Amino acid sequence: MIHITVNGQRVEIESPMSVERMLNTVDVPPNYLAVEVNANVVPREEYAATMVNDGDEVELVTLVGGG
């Protein structure tokens, strides 16, 4: 098991995994989501290739419309 931080909360996951796989475990609408790993924004087209590893800090930001 490895530990990552997601939105300030420590989370335990089985092993390093792609951002895409990690997102399949959370309940957020993917069309309105921005992902940051270790303070770097991850473009949607790189979700499958970007790995989340032990000690990484992940921020998931849900975009909300308003005015």
UniProtKB/TrEMBL annotation:
InterPro entries: Beta-grasp_dom_sf (IPR012675), Mopterin_synth/thiamin_S_b (IPR016155), Thi_S (IPR010035), ThiS/MoaD-like (IPR003749). This is Sulfur carrier protein ThiS. It comes from Novipirellula herctigrandis. The lineage of its organism: Bacteria, Pseudomonadati, Planctomycetota, Planctomycetia, Pirellulales.
